[in-house]
Each structure stands twice: as structure tokens, then as C-alpha cells.
Amino acid sequence: MKIELIGGCTKEELESRIHYVAGAGKLSRFPGNVTEVLESCNDYESNLKLIKRIIKMGHKSIIEHDYLVFALNDVTPIVEQTLIGYRLTSFTVKSRREVDFRTAGFYTPEFRNKAGELHEKNEELKEEYNKHMKMLFNTYGDIVDKGVNVEDARFLLPYSYHSNFIMGVNGRELERMIIALRNGKLSNIPDLKEVGDALYDLVKAHVPYLIPNLKKQEINLKTDFEYLESIEERPKIKILDKTKMISYTPNSDDVVLESSIMYHYQCSKEMAKEILNNMIKKDEKAKEKMMYDILHKEERRELEQVSFTFQIPISLAVLTHLTRHRMHSLLVPEFLPMWNMENYITPVAVKEKANDIYQDAVRKNIEMVKKFKSLDVNEGDLVYFYLSNQMVNVITTMNARNIQWVTRLRCCNKAQWQIRYIANDIRMQVLDVAPLIGKGLGATCMTDRYCGEGRECCGLIDKLLEADSKK
After folding, report:
1. What average pLDDT is seen over the chain?
2. Helix extents (H) in 236-388
3. Domain segments of the chain: what residues?
4. Could you give the CA distance from residue 259 to residue 33 in angstroms, rounded to a whole number?
5. 435 by DSSP, 3-state: which?
6. Residue 313 contacts residue 243 (beta carbons within 8 Å)
7. Neighbours of 300 (CB within 10 A)
8. Residues 388-415 as b or e (16 or more Cβ within 10 Å = b)
9. Residues 86 and 324: beta-carbon distance below 8 Å
10. Plot region of 238 (φ>0 → left; ψ -120 to 50 → alpha; else → beta)
11. Does a cis peptide bond (omega within 30 degrees of 0) precede residue 347?
12. Considering only Cβ atoms within 10 Å of each terminal Cβ, which end of the chain, N or C, has fewer?
């Protein structure tokens, strides 16, 4: 694992970053325009002192003007999934759909006992763990060699494999991230704690205004579920068969249309309803025409006035495809306590070409977890045995604008098959309760007769245009 700050780390860049943050802090209380205030912030030490004083008062919005870019080399997908969950950050991740990962390498923790101390059999456990991980990677390679594409073979990859990505983050979100990784419940997972410590070391040198607050943080390993678990025993985990809508804004189509009228005419809801009814009397297709215009506007804020909540069964292999759509309210089960390892998925291509070796590897992995548990290994060290085929139920609430964006990308034939099934389930369920909104959901070739894939186009757009020309 190696974490590097790849932007804003020279002395000149550091002074420039501090200059802008100090200017933001000074702007609201000093005379002059922005340029004049920035020109007055001409001393590094004074700027740093000002920033520390302002954020100590709790006014942390100014540090959102400081932006840093990190390279995260050879971290696990545990780190990847956790950090992508920070919605105010930006990421570019190496694709497992396109790259053969058999030589990617993997993370090996120092195994601890349940008390959090180094396990007395640590070296033996590491040797057995490494041998097991090599078996899983070799089996992944065998599956690829049997003609299964890497997109489907990756479902066997353990969550110890090395991932690489670039992360951009502002100062405020970086502070939240480091506190959670070093001092919160996430710190019980070894490589998350290591990433937090590495980021802290970089912050000491390159983001000095954060250090006073980070030093004050105390360890807090509470799970936030102590009360729930003290009253109700954890039931057996059951993975849903398919995506299920569990709530939605009633009369979503009318809510969107009336919101548009209220917004444009500055009238009451009652008046908007009356206007809409008058429009329908004059043109029976008024609703359809008005919704079409809303669905194709640049802003589409009206679509944000309605929301839909789903429970979604999804694999770890595909989870980041959903998480990276950050403008929705996603609840992902925490990695601890351990999930039921029997809840996994087998891709159709694997079933057809390499099912025996796939199932044998999964069985051996489950047995290995049981063995490590019997030796009282700390659960925080067992998360690396999760396979990418592990299924979990997640919950998310999306507004209609976000659903339109997600389905534009994920209903495309080029999207990964599991996320494509999920996106189409969402589209069809919205169509059932909000038919006008639903008509605008789906891949752009279906909704707008447009494809932006260029040479990588699947060809469906040509068939659709040909069919349209014959009508």
C-alpha cells in the first residue's frame, strides 16, 4: 500500500492553497471585493493562524476551498468502497471489467485475537492465508483461461486484492475521512486504519490547519447499533430475489408537473392544480408534452421534487457501480459483523464454462473463514475473505432526476449485466407508478434515439432508427 499526494504539495503550492482558504475566511468580515481581500492575505504564517482560528470556531466551510488529489496504490476494495461512499469526493478507479487481475497482488493483515492484540499464531495464520489467497487468484486465472471474460471471472476475486485509484477531496471532507478511518469503528479493519494513518502523515506536512483538530480526536468504536442489538436478536440474512420498490411519492407525475407550474408562475399549489386541469381541457396530451419538456431541460429541478426508495440485492463486485452515483441516499451494510458467506452469486458464463472449480473455490473459502473464526481471529481481519460474489441487500432513495441519470448509463447494453438488470427493474417499477416520468427513463437510444458510445456502440440505435423510419 502506498498513498501519495500528487497535487498541491510543493512549498509554493501549499502557500497558494493556504492563501485562498485564508481569503475565503477573511472575505465575510473585511471590506473590499474578493480580489482586494486576497491581496491583503500576503503572509503565510498569518494566513495559517487565521484559518486555524476560524475553523476552531466551527466555521469549516472555508476549507472546502482547499482541494487535494491523492494516488492510492495497491489498497483493497474495502478501502475503495469505503472512500467512494464519501459523496463529496471524486474518483477514477482501475476497471475489473477490462483488466486481468490474476497478478494484481493482495493485502495480508497482521492477524489479531478478539482482544485486538497480535494473535499468538499470527505467522502461521499469515502463511495459511497467503496460500489460500494464491489459490483463489490461480482459480480466477483458470476461469479466464477456460474462456470466461474477466468481467465474470472477477466474481471470485477475494476482497484482499489490490485496487488502485485517484481521489480528489476538499479539506473538510478529508478531515471527516481521516477521523473515521483512524478513530471510529472503521479503524477496526486493518487497512482502513493504515490508510487513515497514511493520510494523517500527509496532512501533517501539507494541510497543517487540520492537525490541531485531528490530534484531539478520541477512539470511538461504537457501532451505533448497540441499543438495537440489546433488544432484538439479529435475524438470518435473506437476500432479495430482485430489486423492490418499498416507497415512493404518491402521484409523482402530477407533483412534478404542478411543481413546474408553481415554479414558473409563482403560484400556489391549488392554483397550479387548476392551471394543469385547464391545460388538459385544452389539450388532452398536455401532461405528456409538459413532462417531455421537463425530462429534456438542462436543470430538471422539478424531477427532484419526487423520490423513490428501493431495496436492492447486489454483489460486492458491482456495488461500486451503484455507490459512485453519489447523489442518492445509499445505505450499505457495514463490513462488520461478518455477513453470511453462503449468500453469493454465480455468473451464467461461469456456470456454463467453469462451474466446478468456481464452486470448489467458494466452498474452500467458506471453510477457511470458519477455521479462522474457530481460532478466535479478530473479525476485523476476516473481511479480506469476502469474495466479490458476496450478495448484500442495500437501500437507497433517489429522486426522479437521479433515476433518469442512473438509467441513462446503466440500462445501456454496454453496462455490466447485474447493474443493468437492477437499473431496468428500477425503470419498470417507476413506470408502473409514474408512467409519464417512466417514459423518460432508460438508455438514451431508447428515450432520445441518441448514442454517445461512438465506435463502441452496441448497434441497437441503428435498429431503432431503422424501425422508426418504417412507421
Report:
1. 95
2. 252-265, 269-282, 286-295, 316-323, 348-374
3. 2-73+164-226, 100-162+342-385, 250-303, 305-333+391-469
4. 37
5. helix
6. yes
7. 17
8. bbbbbbbebbbbbbbbbbbbbbbbbeeb
9. no
10. beta
11. no
12. C
**What separation in angstroms does the CA of 333 have from each of 82, 157, 162, 312?**
11, 20, 22, 12
Question: φ and ψ at 108, to 5 degrees?
Answer: -120, 115
| Per-residue pLDDT tens digits for 389-442 | 999 999 999 999 999 999 999 999 999 999 999 999 999 999 999 999 999 999
Give me the pLDDT at residue 95, please.
81
DSSP E strand stretches across 64-202: 67-75, 90-93, 163-170
Residue 103: predicted pLDDT: 93
- Give the confidence band of 452 by pLDDT, cuts at 50, 70, 90: confident
- Three cell numbers, residue 380: 476485523
Task: Judge whether 22 and 38 are in contact, CB under 8 Å.
Answer: no
Please give the share of the chain, as a percent, with pLDDT higher than 90: 88
Q: Is pLDDT of 98 > 90?
A: no
Distance from the first to the final alpha carbon of the chain: 59
In sequence order, what DSSP letters do the residues of 186-234 get, joined into one string?
Answer: GGGSHHHHHHHHHHHHHHHHH-GGGHHHHHH-------S-HHHHHHSPP
* Three-class SS state of 309: strand
* Best CATH choice for the domain 305-333+391-469 from the list 3.30.70.3180, 3.40.50.1980, 3.40.50.720, 3.90.226.10: 3.30.70.3180
Mean pLDDT of the region 358-384:
98
